[in-house]
Design a protein that fits this description.
Largest sheet: 2 strands, antiparallel
Shape: elongated
Number of strands: 2
Helix content: 25-40%
Strand content: under 5%
Radius of gyration: 33 Å
Structural class: mainly alpha
Length: 151
């Protein structure tokens, strides 16, 4: 069991208060183990939970160089085969709508029930106000095509 002063040291410095742990990290790095393998081995040997990132951070603080692994162990991932290209969906292009009359730029309170409510510009908003508005919609045909796009 750890003493109270040792608990405080562990809280401040993490698991690296153990000199033999640091020495083993240096030795495994010199043997060209990957950082992930070093984390796994040290976790098993010292009964700690060490992540690959904690090993990388400690190695940088110690000034250790990163070595490419000399061999691939059973714990490292094999290279993935290249994926086959997936055919892309066809994009349908709709014909542009015929030009319509320009928007009327009407204030919200001045709009009638059958006029387009598409907002124009920035605050204070003015609205399109074109007639006829599409049945069951708040917009004219041109603005309906902008707002509701088919997937």
């Amino acid at each position: 069991m750890l003493s109270p002063t040792n608990d405080v040291a562990r809280a401040l410095h993490g698991p690296w208060i153990n000199d033999s742990l640091v020495a083993r990290l240096i030795a495994l790095n010199a043997q060209h183990y990957s950082f992930g393998e070093i984390a796994r081995l040290l976790s098993l040997e010292f009964n700690l939970k060490l992540s690959r990132n904690s090993i990388i951070a400690k190695a940088r603080r110690l000034g250790l160089e990163h070595h490419e692994p000399l061999f691939r162990s059973a714990y490292t991932r094999a290279a993935k085969a290249p994926k086959e290209s997936v055919p892309k969906r066809k994009v349908t292009v709709r014909a542009p709508l015929p030009p319509m009359e320009p928007p009327r730029c009407v204030a919200l309170l001045d709009l009638a029930d059958d006029e387009c409510r598409y907002p124009l510009g920035k605050y204070p908003f003015k609205f399109c106000g074109r007639r006829p508005k599409l049945r069951g919609s708040s917009y004219c045909a041109e603005h309906y095509a902008i707002v509701w796009r088919q997937p």
